[in-house]
Amino acid sequence: MRAFARTFSIAGPAAAALAAVALAATPAAAATTLSAGHVDVVDADWDGADLHLHVHDEVTNTEYAPADVTLSVPAKAKVANPGYGFLGTGSQVWLLPADEATANARGVLFPGISTEHLTTGVFIGDKVKFTLTGATRNGASTDDFSIYAGSGTRWYDSDPATTSYKARDFGVATHNHANWAFEEAGTYKLTFKVEGTVNGTVESATETYTVVVS
Questions:
Q1: Is residue 9 over pLDDT 70?
Q2: DSSP secondary structure string, 113-153?
Q3: The dihedral of CA 78, 79, 81, 87: what is its sign?
């Protein structure tokens, strides 16, 4: 038997009073800022029915909804521009390095793209695809963000003038680290999508991450 909830309406001062009580009883979620340590920024999870993306702080083993987190990239993240063409012509860039010891020595984030919560035998080919679907800086489209490995091997590039370097496959149950580079200060909004095929159906999840570069 299906049960139905009974509904009724309240108008006037009583409604206003009830609304005030409801607001007081539902505090806004506290924002969290992460600025150092091993953080899997783009971390995929499968609950048996849906894919999800979250931020996983490996230091405290805490998971956050991306909307509840600000990633801070301070001035101490600045390094000399290594000279790869896609990093622009500025003398310096803000860099979150692919090496954990280097990140810890500088006191900056060691960012990762993780599939550690995805097990083998679920997704076709035991892989999923992460796509950078959008990137803005201070509200406008930007070419100032990229992720690269080694000596300039690009994984992602926010340059809207190219469709390349927007998507990459990763095996399940892995941690993946590369250099996250920002060419200008500002507030970045980076939107990532994860997708994989389960039993012939493409499953996906999309989230937007906030990064403040100062």
A1: no
A2: EE-TTPPTTSSGGGEEEEEEEEEEETTEE-S-EEEEETTTE
A3: negative
Element (H, E) at 135: strand 127-137
CA 121 to CA 197: how far, in whole Å? 11
Q: Are strands 127-137 and 145-149 parallel, antiparallel or unpaired?
A: unpaired
By residue count, the chain amounts to: 214
Report the alpha-carbon distance of residue 107 to residue 110 in Å, rounded.
9
Sign of the alpha-carbon torsion through 53, 118, 145, 62: positive
Statement: the pTM of the whole predicted model exceeds 0.70: yes
Task: Give the tens place of pLDDT for each residue, 172-209.
Answer: 999 999 999 999 999 999 999 999 999 999 999 999 99
Please name the helix (run of DSSP H) or strand (run of DSSP E) that holds residue 209, with its range, or none. strand 201-213
